[in-house]
Amino acid sequence: MLQNSLASGEMMDMLDIIHATTSCRTMARFQELAKGLQNLLGCSKTTFCWKSLEQDTLLTPPHLLNVSFPEQFLKLLSERRLWRQNPISIRGMQQEGLQSWQDTFNLMSPPKQLLDIKYSFGLYSGYTFSVASQRPRGVTMVSTGGYDSPKIEIERLKFILCRLMPHFHLALSEVLEHGRDKNLPALTGREVEVLSWLKEGKTSWEISVILKISERTINFHVTNVKKKLNVNNRMGAVAQAMHLGLVN
Question: What class has domain 189-243?
Answer without folding.
Answer: mainly alpha
